[in-house]
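Example 3.
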Amino acid sequence: MSKCGRKKYIKTNLRQMTMEIDSQQDGSIPDSVAESESAHMQMQTGQNSIPTLAQVATIAETDESAESESVIDFHKRREILSRRPSYRKILNELSSDVPGVPKIEEEKSEEEGTSPNIAAMAVPTSIYQTSTGQYNEETELAPSHMAATTGDMPTYQIRAPTTALPQGVVMAASPGSLHSPQQLAEEATRKRELRLMKNREAAKECRRRKKEYVKCLESRVAVLEVQNKKLIEELETLKDIYSPKTD
DNA sequence: GCTCCGGCCCGTCAGTTGTA
DNA sequence: TACAACTGACGGGCCGGAGC
C-alpha cells in the first residue's frame, strides 16, 4: 500500500470510528446507517477505494435491496446526517454558555478599527480589482489583545489590509469589454485564480478555527475532569459524615 | 544511511450552508 | 435564488523518530 493510500485508509477508518462513537453517544444515528452512508458516499464518489469489512458487508447488503428504496434511504440518511454548524458558530455558542471560553471573532472592517496593541502577522497582501469592485484577497491575521484575558488560547481578528494596491494587483477587464475567445479565456482563468485564492485563504482560516475549537474542547475536558474529581471527593466526604456507623 | 511510519501542513475540489 | 463562505475529504510534500 502506498503512503497516501495508507493515509487515506487510516483517515477513513478514523472517520468511521468517530461516527460510531457519535452514534453511540447520542443514539441518533444507528451504526448501520452511518456505515452505509459512509460506504455509499465513498463508493459513489469513487473515493476511498478501501472500505472496511463492515462497509463491505453493508454495501453488499444494501445492493441487494430495491433500487428505489435505496434512493429514498439515501435521501433520508442525508437528512439525518446533516452537516454540523461551523466551528465559529459552535465555539461562539460554547463561549456564551461557558464564561472564559474565547470567542472566534467575526470579521471586522477597517472602519471599525483595530486595537493599537495588535501586532499584525506579516501576510503578503494582494488585491484583485474587478469590474464589480475591489477584492481584498488576503487578510491579515492578528493575535488579539483579548488573548491576554483568556490565557493560552489566543483569539484572532481578521483585518483588512491597509495598503492600497500593493504587489499582486490584477486588473480585470469588465465583462462587457470582452469580445474575443482569448479574452474570455483570460477572464475565465482570472476568475478561477481568484476563486482558488479565496478558497485557499478560507481553508487556512477554517483550519485555524478548527484547531481553536479542538483546543477549546480539550480545555473544557480538563476543567470538567477536575470538577468531576472534586465532586467525587466531596461525595465521599459526605458519605463518611452521614453514613450510619455499623459497629 | 536507508526505509518505514506517523504527524502535520497545504492546496484543491466538491458539496453544504448562510445571506443579501 | 444566486452567490459567497465554509468545511470535509483527498492527495501530496516535508519532517522527525524508530528499526534495520
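The first strand of chain A starts at residue 127 and ends at 130. Chain A is about 55% helix and 5% strand.
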